[in-house]
Amino acid sequence: MNIYDISKQAGVSIATVSRVLNGSPNVKPSTRRKVMDIIDQYGYTPNAFARGLGLDTMNSIGIICADSSDLYLSKAIYYIEGNLRKNGYNCILTCSGYNHDDKEAALAMMINRRVDAVILVGSNYIEADDETNRYIMNAAAQSPVFLLNASMDCPNVFCATCDDFKAMQDAALALIDSGITDILYLYNSHSYSGRRKLGGYRSACEIRKLDIAQDLMQFYEGSHEDIDGVCRFLCGLRAQGLVFRAVLASEDMLAAGAVKYAKKNGIAIPDELSVIGYNNSLLTTCSDPEITSVDNKLEALCFQLVRTCIGVLNGEKMPPKIIYSGELVHKGTTRLVH
Amino acid sequence: MNIYDISKQAGVSIATVSRVLNGSPNVKPSTRRKVMDIIDQYGYTPNAFARGLGLDTMNSIGIICADSSDLYLSKAIYYIEGNLRKNGYNCILTCSGYNHDDKEAALAMMINRRVDAVILVGSNYIEADDETNRYIMNAAAQSPVFLLNASMDCPNVFCATCDDFKAMQDAALALIDSGITDILYLYNSHSYSGRRKLGGYRSACEIRKLDIAQDLMQFYEGSHEDIDGVCRFLCGLRAQGLVFRAVLASEDMLAAGAVKYAKKNGIAIPDELSVIGYNNSLLTTCSDPEITSVDNKLEALCFQLVRTCIGVLNGEKMPPKIIYSGELVHKGTTRLVH
DNA sequence: ATATTTTGTGTAAGGGCTTACAAATTAAAT
DNA sequence: ATTTAATTTGTAAGCCCTTACACAAAATAT
Fold it and tell me: Is the CB of A31 under 7 A from strand D?
């Protein structure tokens, strides 16, 4: 069943059927009705591929993320997909993993499929190195590219990011100003936002004239889900004699590991150990006590990113960068001076 | 830049270019090289829409889930997408929400886009009522449909499910057999698997000749992320005088709420209250003590579902149903007799 | 050296839609 | 009633591939 069949049944030309299908105003109401009746009767649906070929778009947008099951990224995907759908777009999702070549392949695949735009979800995607820049630029030459929680100066690349530097700086300052100086900064990503966060921590220490002991910045190499691994990792540090009275984590899951560590070792939270996480995810609520964490305004960022995307696709001039401020949400793992 | 341009540059016909592009064996090696050189030189990529039109497929598969940010569903998506990608398929993802019409619309959209198959992720999608059956059957008339954690007898519909009935029955029996009779069954979904789980609980009670007090089966209406809401809900039940010495939950998040409730009220786990969750997700590790939970073999199910899907698309005869057994993973919220 | 098979290549016909432009119909203006 | 303008419809030319079929070239058999 194709447009010719419908046109024959309705006694009109294919052009008229096409106009009806596309809601063109230049169709006599009676004709429209006649055609619609036939369409409904046969349950006809225009062939999306042919349509795509004619219009050079299938209204689909590529979403690439490293790992769609990640607590944080999955939320981003949810928000982005929902907003795009409201605007009439479909999403082609792919998980690139954290490997370089796979990321590039994912991007190339999207371009091949001729998506209208590509959204790179999660700063984990963007390693902020020249190699990455190169292939994102290549992609941007074909389709506009939108980055969530990353930043890049490149034509046809648009970003929505949380000011992680500032947010982490604030979190660190809050700890310092409540009298804690031995702050262990715990992170598990060298990604774009990972660097920004680390920078924020360092900057806070500088501002308050604290020495930044190298071993108070620890990189956790384990899986993104291995809370117990984090716990063991911290136990190890303690065994080595490292002293810290706060854990400032680049992700809630690391913070959850820190809480677990404290319990295991009979360390009182927040009296003997303060913990601050990042993302303010479900994990912060699940933990006991609940974890103080940075809300990085994910929903708003996703909303704005999609808004920008739609604008660009409609040919509007859009700002290349949107920046939101994070916010420290005080819960049970800190006792901060306000 | 299209296939004509390439053919002109390479001094061959478009048919030859097409053959090179599609890896046809009937091309002289020297010709292939000549064509490939031009293709590489211009970075040419065949138009996916035209290809789709010609082949009547773009190798894409629709994934529909209620909520891609759900801890459990997001994992399913991750596994499914990964497996499909390995087999050369792309995924079009959409979140239908829990509303009936939206689900139907999502399904219709996938069919319109002419996906090769549709995968419905999560039993939440399948309400096991006639209305749902109708539109899934409609869809199945166009493309094969694959259900994760749901079941349906319908041509062109294939399922991979965990035997939730049995798993929940086993969990309940384990509690009963360790001497606990006041088991509060807590659930938050009337979905296909939700019913199966409830059935398992009831069956266990019957087997052990326990009366099933109606108020020991409680439905939680709040959000799927509101752990505190669950906690309040249980506090409410307690205030009303309901006595229970175990919480058997249809989802880990509910179990996490139960743990929180116990702590808030100074109830010792597992001595005074046992808790069992379902899905064995990250939440079980995050909680203190860690939550005993049912592992429902999600990864294996996803693997098999995709395997079935690929088989069907290759024209192979595939089994319409795959059933795995769940497994109770003992952790800290129970002290069960083995 | 010729006939036969195998291999490689080209021509042309779709696949199903959109849309510019031409043509026909209808409405408004004179 | 006739001319002009506005509305509605149809024709045909793309969009860019794939592939059946025909034909040419090369390899093998006679």
Answer: yes
CA atoms within 13 Å, Cβ hemisphere of B135: 21
Is B236's CB less than 7 Å from nucleic acid strand C?
no
Mean per-residue pLDDT, A12-37: 95
What is residue B338's predicted lDDT score, i.e. its pLDDT?
Answer: 64
- For A3-42, the fitting CATH number among 3.90.1010.10, 2.60.40.420, 3.40.50.12780, 1.10.260.40 is 1.10.260.40
Which nucleotide C1' is nearest A6 CA?
C16
Residues 281-310 on B with a CB inside 8 Å of A are: 282-283, 285-288
In B, which residues are within 8 Å of A93 by CB distance? 63, 77, 81, 91-93
- A140-171: pLDDT as tens digits: 999 999 999 998 899 999 999 999 999 999 99
Q: Which residues contact A251 (CB under 8 A, 6 or more apart)?
A: A72, A187, A188, A189, A224, A277, A278, A279
Q: Amino acid identity of A177?
A: D
Protein CA at B24 to nucleotide C1' at D19, angstroms: 12
Element (H, E) at A194: helix A192-207
For domain A59-162+299-325, which architecture applies? 3-Layer(aba) Sandwich (3.40)
Q: pLDDT band for B192, please (50, 70, 90 cuts).
A: confident
